[in-house]
Amino acid sequence: MNNQTENKLIFSPSLFFKHATCPHWIWHDLYSDEKNKAEEPELVSKVREQGVVHEDEYVKGLEHETVAEEDLDEAFGHTLKLMRSGTELIYQGVIQYEDGGVTYRGRPDLLERKGGKSEFGGYYYSPVDIKSSKDIKKEQKYQLVLYGLILEKLQGRYPDEVSIINKEHKRYDLLQDEGDITKTKLLMDVILSIMKGGKPPLRLSSSCKNSPWFDMCVSEAEEKDDIALIYKLDARSHIKLREVGINTIHDMAKANIDDLPKIPYVSSEKLDKVKLQAQSLIDKEVKWFGDLDIPIAPLKIYFDIEGDPLLQTEYLFGLWVVGDPDKKYAKGNNVVFDDKEKKYFIYFLAKKSEDEAIMWQEFLDWLKILPDNYIVYHYADYERSRTISMAGKYGTSPAFEMFHTKLFDLMKTVQSSVIFPLYFYSIKDIAKFLDFKWRHKKAGGGQSIFWYETWLETGDKDILQDIVDYNEDDVRATEFLHQWLINKK
Ligand code: SF4
Q1: Residue 345: CA count within 13 A, CB half-sphere
Q2: Which of 288, 342, 352, 480 could form a disulfide with 325 if both were Cys (CB 3.0 to 4.6 A apart)?
Q3: Ligand 1, residues 27, 205, 211: which to mutate, most atoms within 8 A of Cβ?
Q4: pLDDT interval class at 5 (50, 70, 90)
Q5: Is the C-alpha dihedral spanning 25, 27, 30, 34 positive or negative?
């Protein structure tokens, strides 16, 4: 048990975000040993820094009072003083109240004075949050309702509206809504029960890899041999499975699927696969269950896109070309040859977010020189869906329409024919299992986004090279997996 649970519980808006990611996160933060918590991924800290920069930029032009105290109780005292004296705009104020041993606390970016009766007199305060994203998330609404509830205690009225200012400085005023308030209160009860010790059942998903408690949750699940470790078994199916006595991977591996009652969110056909997945984990071996049907062509292209969801930009298209020993299609400045293997890596890069359209045009120009007979292998749906939306945004061409008909998703092949003794099936999980090595030890999609953001800020060419190398390794890994599948056929 850590300090917060020994003393008092603090309910802050970040709990809504943690709960949306995973209810366990809240529990671990309170009851697990900090020693087992990994460092925050660099990208997460970067996003936070950017949020702060964005807020600072927005308030720069506004007349306001800042609450700068680091000690939160002192900051609260200062905020209250400013509110009582009727300050027009308060930046970084702390608001809080205590109830039943829990301190409800928030730090809205701005508190705006509005006309209307309250315990302060003929005015009251309304919270405004400044976000570095373009879209407004559900959790941001909950956060504003929490501020509203705290303000209600302090000023004797819930504000008529709460507001969000997005990345483009567009303001959204959300009027007081009973539905939102009720939903937020219900969610607060759920979160409070976790804070008071009610540990939710284990569940693991691919997003867990971004969690600082990932290693801890996996080892806990391994210790229990828990069904939460079975890939693609929906967490909502766990409850019923546990009810019928299937709690462990071993239980699942020997289950008689025909005797089971209807399990929600999983068909009986899928349960056969789940059982095979459990057996694969126990035997630590690959299991095959379907025929491989992979198209072939003399020219094979392995394709991977890197995109930055923060900037909503695709910044790198990487293609690993196999079957062109004469380098007929190796045109442009960004080609890296592997003379030993007689293969090459060609890439299209947006060195600035604004260059995305130029990158797209260069890519379309390259597609024009390709022959009729080729296949483009990729892993997962991102490459297909992102290129469709870029064609919608920047324009298409006959060569692109053709390229699109050549796409072949190897992930679908994997999912319809082979089971790996793994908890997750990303290209990285699988290729690493098959012994493929990435050059950079930090390689990963999130890390690439962090590198790109850092490159934009610093112009450091070594970082840009890391991004390109990482993408090259990804497309090489896709070929590696393809070869492995063919050899096993
Ligand atoms: S690793 Fe996953 S299950 Fe565990 S706390 Fe993190 S997000 Fe939740």
Answers
A1: 20
A2: 342
A3: 211
A4: very low
A5: negative
Residue 237 sits in which domain range? 225-285
For residue 418, the domain's CATH number is 3.30.420.10
- Given the CA of residue 25, which atom of ligand 1 is nearest to it? 5
Residue 44 in any domain: the answer is: yes
pTM for the whole thing?
A: 0.81
Asked whether residue 294 carries a pLDDT value surpassing 60, the answer given is yes
Kindly state whether residue 201 falls inside one of the protein's structural domains. Answer: no
Q: DSSP characters for 96-113?
A: EEEETTEEEEE--SEEEE
102 in the same domain as 61? yes
Number of neighbouring beta carbons within 10 Å of residue 391? 17
Looking at the domain assignment, is residue 211 inside a domain? Answer: no
Q: Could you say which DSSP state residue 156 is in? A: S
Contact criterion met (CB below 8 Å) for 36 and 216: yes
Cα of 320 vs its chain's centroid, Å? 27
Q: Look at the chain and report how many structural domains it folds into.
A: 3
Q: What pLDDT sits at residue 173?
A: 86
Task: Out of 28, 33, 217, 226, give the residue to mutate to test ligand 1, the one with the largest number of ligand atoms within 8 Å of its CB.
Answer: 217
Give the whole-angstrom CA distance, residue 327 versus residue 337.
Answer: 9
Contact 423, 227 (CB under 8 A): no
The tokens describing 167, both together, are 């990345």
Distance (angstroms) between ligand 1 centre and the Cα of 211 equals: 6
Asked if residue 216 belongs to a domain, the reply is no
Q: What is the token pair recorded at 88? A: 């027009």
Question: Residue 282 has what pLDDT?
Answer: 98
Helical segments of 13-121, H only: 14-21, 23-31, 42-60, 72-84
Query: What is the per-residue pLDDT across 417-464, written as a single tens digit (0 to 9) for each?
Result: 999 999 999 999 999 999 999 988 777 777 888 899 899 989 999 999
What is the Cα–Cα distance from 12 to 300, expressed in whole angstroms?
A: 52
CATH number of the domain encompassing residue 253: 1.10.150.20
* Chain mean position to CA 130: 21
Q: Give the nearest ligand 1 atom to 202 CA.
A: 3
Using the atom order of ligand 1, give the atom closest to the CA of residue 217: 4
The Cα 146–Cα 159 span in angstroms is 11
Pair 381, 279 in one domain? no
pLDDT of residue 347: 98
395 and 261 assigned to the same domain: no
pLDDT of residue 3: 45
178 is written with which tokens? Answer: 């009973």
Q: What is the mean pLDDT of the chain?
A: 91
